[in-house]
Amino acid sequence: MIKDGQIALRSIGEGDLEFLLLLYASTREPEKAMVAWPDEQWDQFMRMQFSLQHAQYMKNYENPSFDVILVNGVPAGRLYVNRKADDCRLIDIALLPEFHGRGIAGSLIGLLLQEADENGTSVSLHVEKNNPVRDYYLRLGFNVAEDKGVYDFMVRPVGGKDRRSGAV
């Protein structure tokens, strides 16, 4: 359940790029601690990496929705999904650190799984092998479909079993 507020989605726009950059950089903070770069160099690196990722996302999906997650009207994260006839790909979900632990991502993923089940599609995603959320995806009924090196490609079949409660 979502605590402390209402969530909504809205399509990203050009005016969101600085927010999306800030969000992207927030997901890379552990790496920043490992390099002794001056802030200016790190910021330039983040801008370059974000620009490359953003361009790749914008061009490589057939039917994407690129949304900003809003909590009480405040930008809190992003949810990127690509919907095809037979699969719903969770491209990316990320929240600013101050919005972690409120059930926001779990609620949105639950809605995505429900939508996919209603449409008779699987849900797929890539997740780093060392990301703690990987275990959460396993509990939601995702299975490792392919080892991609640092990442696992995971698929949840239509009506995949939620291993936490035994519910479908």
Automatic annotation (TrEMBL):
GO terms for molecular function: acyltransferase activity, transferring groups other than amino-acyl groups. It holds the Pfam family Acetyltransf_1. Keywords: Transferase. InterPro entries: Acyl_CoA_acyltransferase, GNAT_dom. Residues 7-159 form the N-acetyltransferase domain. This is N-acetyltransferase, GNAT family.
